[in-house]
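Name: Fe2OG dioxygenase domain-containing protein
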Amino acid sequence: MVPVWSNAAKVFNISENLFAYDDALKNAFDGDKISKGKVNGYKPKGRNIVDKSGTRDGFESWVLPGDGIFQLGDVMFPHPPVVAASMGTLRALVSHLRFAADSIFKSLSTSLKLKPGQGFEDFHNTARPMPDVLRLLKYHADPRVGGAIPQTPHTDLGSLTFVLCTTPGLQVLSANVQSESGVPRTEFCWQYVEPREGCAVVNLGDCMTKMTNGLLKSALHRVGPLPGNPMPERYSLAYLMRPEGTTLLRTLDSPLIHPPAAEGTSVTCNEWMQNKFQAVRGNQHTGGDHVLTGGRSLMT
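Structure predicted for Fe2OG dioxygenase domain-containing protein:
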């Protein structure tokens, strides 16, 4: 992880420079305007809904598409000067993380005895266009103790997510947490993930859950302040590996994966992405909480 963290430190500097741009420039790269699939561009603070009372989020983000970084396909990749000047660093970081992802995919495919040509790595061919992204995030400080959680509890929509950060705040919820009488026990069960120097947190995403019929579980997580403390300013970066957009998210053939009782309508990775983005915005017509939390209705 040494090369990864060496480049990550440089990308954190890039991130600070990006978010230091004035609002007019940042809004010129608004992801809702320049990217149909939301795989490129800026998101301002407060765009997404955090809870059922309508509280707005407390972070900015900037998404950089893997296809744009490596100039694959015909993807449109408008970006500001600081990104253009840093393309070598961005390519180096993403290349190392893609190599790590490929190693994980191959190990899981072997462990699950997946057939040749049907391993996880076969759905993530980095030589072809796919919707993987590098996401840079800035969480704004909130001086209130016990203030609002700045991020919606969610699972990641892709396959693997590599999270790098030096500031505490990431929380995860065990897959074993259940609701009692329909009331989630979430506030008693969130566990903090302590950042460790030279290490990345690796999350499994919804696509892995769907392709293994729930054997591999995506982790429900969020970012928030430590107990009894206000929310500090916090920078993090996440590389989100996703299958190629046309990949059908169906149960793979393995002697270790139980087939579904009834094969429902399969969705592609691109379709699942769109449903997930709409759920983050509070659109209940896409399945709401079920989509947002990877099938666990725990948004409060």
